[in-house]
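User: Hi! I have a protein structure encoded as tokens and I'd like to know what sequence might fold into it. I'm fairly new to this, so please keep things simple.
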């Protein structure tokens, strides 16, 4: 790995005598880690645990994840271990039900983590301003299976008018990506001092834009995957002095190898088993009077669809059902006021559970319903697929279910739902979203990844 000379000079000043150890660590393979979905996996894998995450695990080798149907079922997420440190902050400072914004959320690693960590009565707004990445975010969230989430495709300044709306905000800021050098050769090629300066300006702009939407005494989590002080400690200092916030501390175990600084927590590959990361947590303290957007406190009456969709959702009495374009969605009734408000304010791509698509008089069940942890499977016809057939389904190729009844069938792999087919008897029409399909060819000599299957299957 050939590092830019300017990066070497800057980082050597930062690390001092340990710089050579840092460079040596960059020559080693990056560790592979996953975080299991506690709503879909109910036992503890026999793996080395990420010490700062209750559901994070290291793998001894990197399998071909694309050919594992359990990944597509949302049973786990492939996530860099250092970023799972988010769990320590949420458990300490956000234990109650909140309205939270994940401002730069794609592809969804921290978003899905938050959905597993936050109080179940919370509402999480996952935003991504690059539209193509926002669709990837929506896919990963639907696979994770939670209903208390809204996906938006907005610029940071679009949140400025939402005065004091959020109790907590996560800004996983776009950065120069120095912490990804050993995983992404492109990050090295794109790095320059000028790009660092550009990132600093961008970070401060988006922080300034989103700041009014965080209520006073609300929690801000700031994170980057880079090393330099400009995008990390200097950014936190700027937040404190210019926007008005106090720095909060997080209890860490010395054995983790996390490096505390005056303004946050650093992860270095020669000290921790993970990639480069910086994370800090702050509490908003400025006392300026923001114009709070008032929501209607009256009980809102929603007319449920005159369609037979409720039996597909467990505890359907706790959901609101309504149209979203040509789809029928369901979202938790306890967040109905906030969701209705946000539907008018933001460019919303997804909210709650996509249940059905209306095509004329027909109702077509959606992948989001199949993958939802709220799906009532007792009211579904199901079919178990072996590994190879599951991959054919995920590639949108033809499969047959001769022993299943005709009509809509929920197809599963190792009891984890993958999606729907319409069984016609002699063949099945796949209802798997075409944009989600596996595009790689299945190698003729490929075999089922028994390693992950044994670890993650009860």
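Assistant: Happy to help. Inverse folding works backwards from shape to sequence: for each of the 458 positions I chose a residue that suits the local structure. Here it is:
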């Amino acid at each position: 790995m050939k590092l830019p000379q300017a990066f070497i000079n800057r980082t050597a000043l930062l690390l001092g005598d340990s710089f050579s150890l840092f460079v040596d660590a960059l020559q080693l393979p990056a560790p592979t880690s996953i975080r299991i979905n506690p709503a879909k996996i109910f036992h503890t894998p026999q793996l080395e645990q990420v010490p700062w995450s209750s559901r994070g695990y290291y793998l001894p080798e990197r399998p071909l994840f694309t050919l594992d149907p359990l990944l597509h079922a949302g049973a786990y997420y492939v996530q860099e271990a250092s970023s799972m440190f988010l769990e320590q902050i949420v458990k300490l400072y956000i234990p109650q039900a909140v309205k939270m914004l994940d401002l730069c959320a794609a592809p969804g690693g921290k978003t899905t983590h938050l959905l597993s960590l936050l109080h179940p009565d919370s509402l999480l707004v996952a935003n991504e301003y690059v539209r193509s990445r926002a669709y990837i975010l929506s896919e990963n969230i639907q696979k994770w299976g939670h209903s208390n989430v809204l996906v938006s495709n907005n610029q940071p300044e679009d949140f400025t008018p939402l005065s004091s709306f959020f109790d907590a905000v996560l800004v996983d800021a776009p950065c120069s990506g120095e912490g990804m050098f050993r995983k992404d050769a492109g990050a090295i090629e794109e790095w320059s001092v000028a790009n660092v300066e550009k990132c600093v300006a961008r970070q401060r702009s988006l922080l300034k834009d989103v700041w009014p939407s965080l209520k006073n005494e609300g929690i801000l989590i700031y994170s980057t995957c880079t090393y330099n002080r400009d995008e990390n400690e200097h950014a936190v200092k700027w937040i404190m002095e210019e926007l008005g916030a106090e720095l909060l501390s997080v209890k860490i175990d010395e054995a983790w190898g996390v490096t505390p600084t005056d303004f946050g927590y650093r992860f270095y590959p020669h000290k921790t088993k993970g990639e480069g990361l910086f994370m800090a947590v702050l509490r908003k303290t400025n006392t300026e009077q923001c114009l709070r957007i008032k929501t209607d406190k009256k009980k809102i009456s929603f007319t449920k669809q005159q369609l037979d969709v409720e039996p597909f959702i467990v505890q359907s009495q706790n959901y609101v059902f309504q149209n979203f374009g040509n789809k029928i969605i369901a979202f938790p009734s306890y967040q109905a006021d906030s969701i209705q408000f946000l539907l008018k304010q933001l460019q919303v791509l997804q909210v709650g559970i996509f249940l059905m698509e209306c095509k004329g008089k027909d109702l077509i069940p959606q992948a989001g319903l199949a993958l939802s942890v709220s799906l009532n499977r007792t009211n579904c016809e199901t079919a178990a697929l072996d590994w190879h057939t599951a991959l054919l389904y995920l590639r949108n190729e033809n499969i047959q279910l001769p022993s299943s009844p005709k009509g809509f069938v929920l197809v599963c792999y190792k009891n984890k739902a993958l999606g729907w087919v319409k069984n016609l008897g002699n063949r099945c029409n796949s209802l798997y979203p075409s944009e989600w399909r596996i595009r790689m060819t299945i190698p003729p000599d490929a075999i089922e990844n028994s390693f992950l299957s044994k670890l993650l299957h009860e």
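A useful reference point when you look it over: Confidence is low (pLDDT under 50) at residues 295-306. Feel free to ask if any position seems puzzling.
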